[in-house]
């Protein structure tokens, strides 16, 4: 029988993934208004994908409960993470919806369950330590992320975790603004401004990433209502023109919501 505490933690992670895709508008990304720069995904597919991850998230919480941060735990959650990736691809018919999210959420769930804490600093530090342990069972693949990281000397989702999730922490540190929507929109823009998202670079190049980040920074710090700021429409147009999607930022956005709403 699944213990309620593990199920509840996993359900919160799945709910955060669904919240992320529902949050609208998000330039370049799939939301409930549009499919952004994607032709093979919509918000319903993301819901299906999120639901397919519940069992693996429960198992990560279970297997991590009060465990020391050491190689056996790292290898165990790596094994479950790879099953989660398979479940996701099966649920989506081969579309990569949540690969980055499985990685980040998996580490965060494991950190929460192993330390039995809601303290964000402790969670990020523990997830960082876990991610730095070498999992000998990883088979290097020529993924889009791997190709891009090598070509441009970027560190991707792995680097974000191994550095203690600095961009996620930056987004969370952003003080509430006018209202809940404005606060979360600016947190998303903080991620757009700072994350070296390999999805963007794979579909374009480093110059496009930097222009995207600079435009996002301008909007994030502008006190005007974001949806009335003409620069926001410009950002939307920019993602369309370059056919780019900040999928890595979306994963971290979901993870930041998950941490902020831990019960
Ligand atoms: C360590 C792994 C994450 C290995 O990952 P990989 O080597 O494949 O490459 P990364 O670049 O590290 O990216 C993986 C995904 O992470 C997201 N991401 C990208 N950049 C960043 C960043 N700077 N910080 C954080 N996260 C980042 C991103 O995922 C999202 O985008 C995907 C959808 O994008 P889309 O545009 O559709 O791209 P594609 O389908 O690839 O291509 P096209 O559409 O252009 O054709 C979606 O998945 C989002 O989630 C990257 O895709 C890890 O996978 C690993 O080692 N796993 C093993 C299991 C394990 O150990 N798990 C432990 C914890 S459970
Ligand atoms: N809403 C979204 N759109 C595109 N890629 C994503 N990866 C995770 N969430 C996403």
UniProtKB/TrEMBL annotation:
It is an enzyme of class 2 (transferase). InterPro entries: CitG. The keyword Nucleotide-binding applies. Its EC number is 2.4.2.52. GO terms for biological process: prosthetic group biosynthetic process. GO terms for molecular function: ATP binding; triphosphoribosyl-dephospho-CoA synthase activity. Transmembrane segments: none annotated. It comes from the Bacteria. Keywords: ATP-binding, Nucleotide-binding, Transferase. It catalyses: 3'-dephospho-CoA + ATP = 2'-(5''-triphospho-alpha-D-ribosyl)-3'-dephospho-CoA + adenine. This is triphosphoribosyl-dephospho-CoA synthase. The lineage of its organism: Bacteria, Bacillati, Bacillota, Bacilli, Lactobacillales.
């Amino acid at each position: 029988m699944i213990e309620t505490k593990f199920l509840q933690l996993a359900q919160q992670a799945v709910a955060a993934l669904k919240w992320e895709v529902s949050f609208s508008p998000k330039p370049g990304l799939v939301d409930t208004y549009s499919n952004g720069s994607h032709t093979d995904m919509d918000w319903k597919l993301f819901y299906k994908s999120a639901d397919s991850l519940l069992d693996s998230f429960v198992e990560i919480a279970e297997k991590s409960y009060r465990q020391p941060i050491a190689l056996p735990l790292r290898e165990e959650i790596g094994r479950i993470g790879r099953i989660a990736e398979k479940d996701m691809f099966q649920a989506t018919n081969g579309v990569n919806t949540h690969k980055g999210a499985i990685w980040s959420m998996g580490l965060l769930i494991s950190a929460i369950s192993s330390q039995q804490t809601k303290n964000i600093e402790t969670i990020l530090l523990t997830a960082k330590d876990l991610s730095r342990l070498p999992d000998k069972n990883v088979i290097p693949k020529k993924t889009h992320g791997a190709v891009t990281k090598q070509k441009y000397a970027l560190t991707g989702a792995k680097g974000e975790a191994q550095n203690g999730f600095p961009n996620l922490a930056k987004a969370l540190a952003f003080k509430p603004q006018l209202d809940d929507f404005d606060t979360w929109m600016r947190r998303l823009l903080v991620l757009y401004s700072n994350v070296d998202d390999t999805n963007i670079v794979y579909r374009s190049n480093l110059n496009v990433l930097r222009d995207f980040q600079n435009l996002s920074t301008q909007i994030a710090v502008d006190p005007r209502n974001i949806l009335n700021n003409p620069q926001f429409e410009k950002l939307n147009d920019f993602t369309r023109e370059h056919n780019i999607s900040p999928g890595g930022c979306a994963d971290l956005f979901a993870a930041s919501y998950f941490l902020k709403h831990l019960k």
